[in-house]
Amino acid sequence: MNTGVYRFPAEFHARVRAAAGRGVAGITDVLDEAIREGVRIEGVRSSDLWSDAVYPWDLLRVNADLLRASPPIIETPPGVTIRGPVLIGEGATLDPGCVLGPGTVIGDDVQVGPHCILESCVLYQDVQVAPFAYVRNAILGEGTRVGPRFTSLSGPSSIRQRDGWHDLDDFGAVVGEDCRIGGGVTLLPGALVGNRVQIAHGKTIAGALEDGAMVR
Q1: Distance CA 82, CA 102 (A)
Q2: Which position among 45, 208, 212, 216 has the lowest Cβ density within 10 Å, counted as fewest Cβ atoms?
Q3: Is 194:174 a contact under the CB 8 Å cutoff?
Q4: 48 to each of 44, 65, 149, how far by Cα in Å?
Q5: DSSP class of residue 13?
Q6: What would the pLDDT profile of 147-161 be if each residue is shown by its tens digit?
Q7: Domain map of the chain by residue range?
Q8: Crossing angle of the two packed helices 27-36 and 12-21, in degrees rounded to 10
Q9: How would you classify residue 11: left for phi > 0, otherwise alpha for psi between -120 and 50, otherwise beta?
Q10: Nearest to residue 137, comparing CAs of 123, 154, 124, 150?
């Protein structure tokens, strides 16, 4: 089984560059060439945590696994309730009345307004969340802004990817980078919002929105 994790000696990088110059792009193809030339490849057994991440929703599970395995020591902001292992980045501000559920990751310089509920979600760097938001099992990309009473619901959903449909028992939404989402917007389970999307106040979003889409 190929787990996709390797440790290469420094001289192997020259081999990769040479292979790329011949049009060989896959690392497994480079390894095949090396094995045929007599290079020894060894597998290493590990008992440590292994959690594969292929799709966006896998990030939620991976973060939750890591936080459970090694809960960080953080200082709880005044007036904020934390209900399990979470991670809060540098320069992040959370106003009083916020509730963070287990598995939540708050990136650097994130701003979260008062009385927001964030459960098992990832907020990338420089995200701003206005007051009274509810976000569960969702990912908000870097630089995204959401208005007051923004809601990302979580539940059963079917999401189409390049390899087919994926049926998820409990998932919220993925919002890309630099989106501008108005107040009172609701994302239904399985919503996929691209980068730089603008959504007007009070809209309900289901399915996928392409990069740069505008919903008025």
Answers
A1: 8
A2: 45
A3: no
A4: 12, 12, 41
A5: H
A6: 999 999 999 999 988
A7: 1-47, 58-215
A8: 110
A9: alpha
A10: 154
Distances (CA, A) of 119 to 4, 77, 88, 140, 187: 30, 17, 13, 13, 15
Q: How many helices (H) and strands (E) does the chain have?
A: 3, 23
1: Cβ contacts below 8 Å, ≥ 6 apart: none
Q: How far apart are CA 182 and CA 200, in angstroms?
A: 5
d(CA 35, CA 18): 16
Q: State the amino acid at position 73 in one-letter form.
A: I
Q: How far apart are CA 138 and CA 181, in angstroms?
A: 15
Task: Please report, as a single letter, which amino acid is at residue 206.
Answer: A
pLDDT digits (tens, 9 = 90+) for 45-87: 878 777 778 888 999 999 998 899 889 989 899 999 999 999 9
Q: Tokens 């760097």, residue?
A: 125
Tell me the C-alpha distance between 39 and 132, whole Å.
59
Fold classified for 58-215:
UDP N-Acetylglucosamine Acyltransferase; domain 1 (2.160.10)
Q: How many residues belong to the chain?
A: 216
pLDDT, tens digit, 9 for 90 and up, residues 167-207: 999 999 999 999 999 999 999 999 999 999 999 999 999 99
- DSSP structure string for 2-24: --S-----TTHHHHHHHHHHTT-
Choose among 176, 179, 153, 139: nearest CA to 53.
139
Q: How far apart are CA 112 and CA 104, in angstroms?
A: 13
